[in-house]
Amino acid sequence: MAASFRWILQLHRDVPKAARFYSEGLDFTTNVCTLRWAELQSGSLKLALMHSQLEQVTQKGYSSLLSFTVTDINSTVTKLIALGAELDGPIKYEVHGKVAAMRCLDGHVLGLYEPV
Description:
116 residues; alpha+beta; 2,3-Dihydroxybiphenyl 1,2-Dioxygenase, domain 1; five-stranded mixed beta sheet; four-stranded mixed beta sheet; 2 helices; 19% helix; Glyoxalase/fosfomycin resistance/dioxygenase domain-containing protein; Glyas_Bleomycin-R_OHBP_Dase; Glyas_Fos-R_dOase_dom
């Protein structure tokens, strides 16, 4: 039997703040949230957040990149900025749709895509 995918794990210094970011900014469902662990879900994708005190977690480099298809990139960017994210360059208007990169909590980066 082949292995089955369980979840993607990100390390964060403030797990509840990170869980709120994904829940309110991208409408993830929060299955579990404690000070040290959270599990969120969007469809069949599960995102696990684990507490870490390591300084590498708060780096300004590209720690992880998660890409999401959204229905309205402008409102999603606005929500994420209100929750502490920053645009990593301008929203680009490509022939296939709009794309944006958001630098988020603890150095993680989100790619957003709104198809035409």
